[in-house]
């Protein structure tokens, strides 16, 4: 002992450590569920941008755009959106392709995360 003077201990308790580790694991689980959906979304945007960059994009018909999207989605392993899900409109500048979709991923028991995505060829 130090001549009757008790030193004050500092640090985290075991229960505090368990709570911090549980929070980190929970956040990691959410991240592991959400990241693939965002990777697929960026793939959808990439396919739409590729279609929009075609020289004859504004002269294409709906069926041709849908077929092109399905081919690009097949190459990019995109399964959440199909060519038939696309909204294809004409405006003053030409064709505009829009897709809106949701992805719901279960986390634990009845807790889920819902992600809403919107992609368009409009700039």
Largest beta-sheet characterization:
3 strands, antiparallel
Which percent bin holds the helix content? 40-55%
Rg calc = 25 Å
Output mean pLDDT: 90
How many domain regions?
Answer: 1
Poorly predicted regions: none
Report, as a whole number of angstroms, the end-to-end distance.
73 Å
**What is the number of strand segments?**
3
**Helix/strand structural class:** alpha+beta
Order of helices and strands: HHEEE
Question: What's the overall geometry?
Answer: elongated
Percent strand equals 15-25%
Quick rundown:
A hairpin with a 2-residue loop joins β2 (94-108) and β3. A 3-stranded antiparallel β-sheet has the order 1-2-3, with helices on one face. It has helices at residues 14-52, 62-75; strands at residues 87-91, 94-108, 111-120.
Name a few traits of the molecule.
single chain, 123 residues, alpha+beta, 3-stranded antiparallel beta sheet, 2 helices, 43% helix, 24% strand, elongated
Topology at a glance:
Blueprint: H1 14-52, H2 62-75, E1 87-91, E2 94-108, E3 111-120
Antiparallel strand pairs: 1-2, 2-3
Helix pairs in contact: 1-2
